[in-house]
Amino acid sequence: MTTSLIDAESLLVIDAGTVHTRAMLFDVVDGRYRFLASGTANSTAGAPFHDVGEGMRRAIDKLQEVTGRTLIDQSEQLIMPPSGDGSGVDTFAVTLSAGAPIKIVAVGLLEDVSLESAKRLARTTYTGVLETISLNDRRKPEERIDTILRLRPDLIVVAGGTQGGASQSVLQLMESVGLACYLMPEDQRPEIVFAGNTDLHEEVGKTLESLASVHFAPNVRPTLEHEQLDGAQVELSHIFSSIRARQITGVRELADWAGGNLLPNAASFGRVIRFLSKAYTSTKGVMGVDVGAAATTIAAAFDGELVLGVYPEFGLGEGIINLLDHVPLADIRRWLPVGISDEYVREYIANKSLFPATIPITSEDVALEEALAREVMRHALQKTAGGFRSHTEYTGSGLLPLMEPIIATGSVLTQPPSLAHSMLMLLDGLQPTGVTTLVLDQNHIAPALGVAAATNPLLSVQVLDSNTFLYLGTVISPVGNSRPGTPILRVRMTYESGHETSLDIKQGALEVLSLPLGQTAQLHLQPLHRYDVGMGGPGRSGRLGVHGGALGVIIDARGRPLEMPQDPARRQELLKKWLWTLGG
C-alpha cells in the first residue's frame, strides 16, 4: 500500500514525561510513512519550571537541529498547517505521563465485584488508589465522608449495580460522595466518574452535578460474571487530561495545539498493543512492557481484548522511594552480579527519587538499575496477570501465557551497555514461555503511534511495518520439570543455505543460535520428558520459521518459574555467565 505525497500528512508528536520530553516527527518517504527523527530534552513538568511547555520547546529545538526543518515560528507558536517553504507540520498530537499519580477514591457496591472493577479501571492510567468505599465496609456514613474530606482526592471512581440491577444501594453510596463534595471548597472538589448501572445516570446527575464535575461511562460490570472496562477507560483518559491541565502549566496549551488529541502515554501504548493483536492471525496474545520513570506499564491483548495495568509504585523516577514498600530488598539483591550492601541499595533508591534523570555510571550502579528493572517488571506483571484470558495452561500455573511478540520500551531497557543486557532483563523480568519474539522500541515511538491512530491509522500501520523497531531475537522457553542437566529439548535449525545445526538442550541451560538480522531459518523442536514448547501440549514437537534478530535465537531452559540459587556467590557467577552467553 502506498500513500500519495500530495495527500500525506506530516505528524509531530510530543511525549511529555516525568524525566524526558520527546518530540517525534513522522512524514512520507518514498511513498510510505516513516519515523524521521526525534529530539529529546529534560522534562520541565517539575521544579523549577513546573511547565511542560518549556521542555516541549527544547525538544522541538533539538528536532529542528537534526532535521533542518522549522517547526516553531518567531512568536514561539507551532507552524500548522505547513507553509510553502516546507516548514511546519499538518497534524500534532500529545502523549502525557508527567506528574504525580492522580489521587483516587474507589467506590463500589460489593468488595469482590464492582469495587474490584473500579480499582482495575483506576489502574489503567497514572493513579494511586488512596481508599476504597463499599456497601460491605462497616464504617458509618459520616466516617466515609470524613475519609473523603481528609484525603482530598482528585477523582472518585464509582462502580456498582449490574444492568437493571441494584439502584437504591448504589444511590446510598452516592449520598456520602455528594455530601463530602458539598463540604469541600469548590476549587478542591474532585471530579467523579460514574461507571455503574446506566439506568441511574439521570438520578446520579441530579444529585451530584451541582456539587462536582460528573462524567458518565459505560457500566464496568454489566453482569456479575462479566467485566467490561474499555468504554470507561476512554472516559478516564479524557478526565486524566483535564486534571493534568489544572495541575501542570502548559498542558492546556498542548491540548489546544493538538485539537484535543492528547492521551495518557499508557493508553496510547495499550492502543498499539490492541491493534497488533487484531492484525496478527496467531492464537497467542500480544504484549508490551514500558518501564518508565512515572510508572511501569503492562499491556496485553488477545484478539483485540486489551488488559492494561499502569503502576506508578513501580516507576523508576521520584516514586521509586516507595518501592521497598512493595518489593522485598532480598528480591532486588538476587539479581546483582556484584556484591552490594543493603545500605548502598537503599541510598541509591533514595538518590534516584531525588534525581530521577541520573544515569548510572559505575558497574555497580548499572547492575542495580537493571536489578530494579527486573523486579518492577516482575511485580507489575503479577498484578496484571489476573486479567489475562486463560489461553494456555501456563496461565493457571502463574506463568506468562503464550505471547507473540513482546514489545519493550523504557530507557533502562533501550539504553543499557549492550543489547545483551536488554535481553537478559526481559528474560528474567517477564520469563516468557513457549516461542516468542522480543522486540525493542528503541526510539520510544509506540505510544506516539497509538495517539496517531485516532486521526491517521495508515501512518501507524506503515511505521509499524517498517524497520523502526529492533528485533532482539526469537526466544524458546521450554516448560516442564526435570533435574538440572537433564536433556529436555532437541533443536535442529536449517538455514537458508541448507546448512543444518543441531543441539541438545539441558535443563538449566541458556543457549544462543546465530541467525543474523535479515536472515530466516526453519526450526524443528522436539521436547523430551513431556516438556512444553507451545506446539500444542506437553511433548508435542513442531516446525516453525524464524527471522534473524540482533542476538539470534535464544533458548532459555533455565526453568519456569526461574529459581535462583540461594548462595550469593553462585548467583553472581550465573548472572555473569548468562550475560556472557548472550554476548554482553
Structural features, described:
The structure is a single chain. Strand 12 and strand 13 (305-311) form a beta hairpin. Mean pLDDT is 90; it is low at 1-6 and 391-396. Helix content is 33%, strand content 25%. It has an 8-stranded mixed β-sheet with strand order 13-12-11-14-15-16-22-19, sandwiched between helices. It has a 5-stranded mixed β-sheet with strand order 3-2-1-4-10, with helices on both faces. Strands 6-5-7-8-9 form a 5-stranded parallel β-sheet, sandwiched between helices. The chain is globular, with a radius of gyration of 25 Å. The chain has helices spanning 52-67, 114-122, 141-151, 168-183, 201-208, 230-247, 251-257, 265-279, 329-333, 342-354, 363-384, 393-396, 411-414, 419-430, 446-452, 457-465, 568-581, and strands at residues 11-16, 20-29, 32-42, 91-96, 102-108, 127-134, 155-159, 191-194, 214-216, 262-264, 285-291, 296-302, 305-311, 403-409, 434-440, 470-477, 487-495, 500-506, 510-513, 520-527, 542-547, 553-556. By secondary structure, the protein is an alpha/beta fold.
